[in-house]
Amino acid sequence: MPPSQRPPVSLVAPAVVVALVAIAPVIYLVDRAASSGWNVAWREIAQQRTIDLVARSLTITVMATILCVVVGVCAAVLVTRTDLRGAKIWRVILALPLAVPTYLAAYAWVSARPSLAGIDGATLVLVACCYPYVFLPVCAALQRIDRASEEVARASGRSGLSVIWHITLPQVRTAVASGALLVALYVLSDFGAVGTMRFESFTWVIFGAYNAGFNPSRAAVLSLVLVAIALGVTLAEMRARGRSSYRLGAGASRSGFAFRLGRKQIGATLFLTVVTAVAIGMPVGSLVKWLVRSTGQQTDWTDLRRAAFNSFTLALIAALVTLAVAIPAGVLAARHQSVTSRVVERATYVSHALPGIVIGIAVVHLGIRLLRPLYQRTPLLIAAYVVIFLPLAVGTVRAAFEQCPPRLEEVARSLGRTRRRALWQVAARLSAPGLAAGTALTFLAAMKELPATLLLHPTGTDTLATRLWTHTSVSDYSGAAPYAAALMLLAALPTAVLGWLSGRLVGDG
Amino acid sequence: MGSGLSIEGVHKRFGALQVLQGVDLNVEAATLTAVLGPSGCGKTTLLRIIAGFEQADDGRLVVDGTNIATLPPELRHVGVVPQEGALFPHLDVGRNVGFGIPKRGRSARVAECLELVGLAGFEAARPAELSGGQQQRVAVARALAPRPAVLLLDEPFAALDTNLRAQVRSDIADAVRASGTTTVLVTHDRDEALSLADHVAVMLHGRVLQVATPIDLYRHPVSSEVALFVGEAFLVPGYNDAGASSSPFGDVRVHGPVGDVLLVIRPEQVVLSSSGTFATITGVSYFGHDCLVEMVLADGSTVATRVAGHRSPAVGSTVHVLIDGVVSSVVR
Amino acid sequence: MAALPALVMICACASGGDATSSTTAAPTTAAPTTTQPIKPSGSITIYSGRSESLVKALYEQFTADTGITVSARYGDSGALAAQILTEGKASPADVFFAQDAGALGAVAKAKLFSSLPASQLDKVAKTYRSADGMWTGVSGRVRVVLIDPAQVATPPATIDEVLDAKWKGKVGFAPSNASWQSFVTALRVTRGDAAAAEWLKRFAANTPKAYQGNGAVRDGVNAGEVALGLVNHYYLYEKIAKEGADKVTARNAFMTPGDVGGLVNVAGVGIMTSGRNRGAALAFSEYLLSDKAQKFFAEKTFEYPLVGGGAPAVGLPSLADLKPPTIDLSDLDSIAITQELLSKAGLLTK
User: Fold this and answer.
1) In Å, how far is A210's CA from the nearest CA of chain C?
2) Whether pLDDT at C156 is above 90
3) CA distance B9 to C42
């Protein structure tokens, strides 16, 4: 019987507060859009150009999401369910594209192949940078499901492919859906790829409304359309997720047998090699080229070190705070399914579809009015990161706690622990790998973030991303190279941890 | 220890579904009471309410003269052994068992409890390394370690292999008894309930219908429903006139309500004999040590009995049957 | 000849870090200072749309010369304007130093600038500052056609000659570059939207090659990938400074006087009403208009000084000779409409 108890106020209250903070940018946008009059706003929305934009954004979102799902799921099946050679190493390598900012990847591609500019190139870059959002949760989920059903199906004479399609994949539907949600929201919000590839999506026009039109009201109206699309996407994900179920068994899953690839071994390796070449080889190759060219210039190591330190510290604080803030909402969603928990969880997702500059401007607006002493200081920047990256953490917290049977907490309570202590001593410990993964994901994303950082960073506190921008904004790619390299190297560490964690089981110690 | 548990008028509703409609049950101190019922009867809900995982809509739970119904689980001193044990997979056996007890004297108490369940020296083992039966024993040790006032066992043997179950079951019952803890065992398995418990409470449709010792319950059920639930039986109409009734088997001795009644005839009371009512054998299921014999009586009613394997009759043959002992009657 | 500025520039690029690090790019040819001893002190916050690698050395020199400390927040001029518009009267900025007139115009329109003193405004020709005195241009850049001499015997003299069929597939441009979009805006302002659309249509029909930025256009012309490139004048000199004159074959072709293709864009400065140190802010704008700063722009960024008497870098024709088209720069703030036009012509995005 599922725990149907009404969630305690000590959980609901912080979760609701967090949800309110998360949708604060949307509230600002509504206010801003209304300030120009609803007639103006409506005219903006109803015009043909806006409708075209919706179509364009939906097209690239759907395309990139589907491709990410295909690449992510195939890769996950290959490394967890087959006798692929070097599967453990592949698992780490395949997570690495998360360390590559889309603006870098896009620049690398479009300079090498200018004809890629447009939707093709933007899609290519977004898929290359985002498929790990699907790959990682699906890997983890594949690791967890009960192998018995696969074995039964195999014994009943189904081919390996048929078993994976009909038996294995339906069981990881939730993971696929939540990964796809993150991809879709990211694609909607991304400017790095569409900006560089010159694909006119919503974010392109929103950036234009700020940067060229000096028209924040128009930007707000367009952003609200994006919010509406995001709501649609999250609802679609709820549909696709179906009923989540998790293993109740207390013991570890047996490691199941692997599907033999046989002659397909070469094909599989080739597929993963191509994915890696596109997603990592290309940007790293360009980076090396710039680095070689920059050998004539002298690198300011002190500045590089300082920027790396700032990036690391800010991203770490952002990741930890986001995790802490995400726990109430994530636990609520995992343990107390109700209208409230659903609304709270979805509220944290909506802002993720907004481009960084929109969140940044919203935080500027609210910060300067409500938190003047903190304006352009670290806490407010962290707050912006929290709002932007909350869904990454809420999603992983939710998944981690769903895997931890509530029975265990009940037993702990009957052994004299309060609700909070039981949650901490049992569920949180068991969810540690999942929580660590969420932290790593947020850390990575925060380190790559640029538009909001430029608006809100404390004066004089430069990060690798802002230093990178300093140079690329004047087309000084050689000068940018050391910062780009440092950024990708620093980001590669937590990414490797992510790949490694995706192979760990709940309760493995 | 030394305190009983009194459940008084507990109600619980989930939405439109009234799961518990006034449960009353008195569990004597230091005894083991089994709550027996089919799935969906509300027995697990009752257990979760006693543990404090669910709140009752109404009713009292009295331990030692105190109503614990409003306390949070951690203050109730109620130990729980869930199905499949639910050991903390990230802690070794010693730390699982020691989870609920203060640091001082912990290791000694852990050793003591592990010994009680027959797993002395298993402190360093990881839960994943244990068999299902061992995991259950650890779960019991863990629940007993803080010396709870009441111990709750939630179908703790359901997931075990048949050949393992009997052994684990009796070992655990012994351990629980040795600890002197007031225990409630929730189960749908009547053999388990009858063989382990001091008292059995039969629960159907959210109510406790009867509480009795296993023998009393089996011999003197309060209703046909209870009679059929605690064991196989044939119900035949009869008229209890001061301890005797006519029946298809002839006159039988009856214990229970008088007047128009249903007679509860257990298969083991039907014996093949050289005299008595005629019956025709319609089927035999052979099990080696015994066999189940189905037959039809002269008046058309069908009964079955068990006979020793080597006495297996042939299908179609005619035999005489008698009723051995007193049959119980229930209100028609 | 160009090696010296190049060296200085690289130093300026590489000296990152905070504002307290010592100046590494002291001008080697310091002009006699004509500014009066400046009384204001304290510190100012500059929202700098001009990039750090270009102007950081200048800010450090300002601090060294005046004792006023500078904390600079760098960003895209447009994004900074959006930030200022959002901050409103509470903005922590004292000064907005923007890359183009559009961003300054947007802030002026929101009434967030306080007017500059006439003594400063009078230094700059009216064409290069706002009519109401809310901001002034500081340095200028001229739109040119960069040519590959190997392919081009007679360079186009007007922007319409670029449309000639003989340049089909041989023109490079940077669709997302702000200066290009300013030029198209100027085209709209001078000829009307319909004529501008027609020009764009013909331009698009000539299948121009889109590059990632002006620097890429320049490199494309220099490598002979295209014959012509629509860029600002200084990209050529940057490359010469960096790689040496012998490595660069491309040449600037300036437009006929008055042709809209030779538009002058300005980088400019405005003083925020929200500023808490108006004296120091005015000292900064004064400084930008001083001979020293003007010389800095001429020599380090190869831009045109806008204060009378300031000569451009060696080898550049003077603004007086170029006679750029007279366009009110405040009219160039309708870039959104320009982008729509570009988008319709298929020149903005793909």
Assistant:
1) 6
2) yes
3) 79
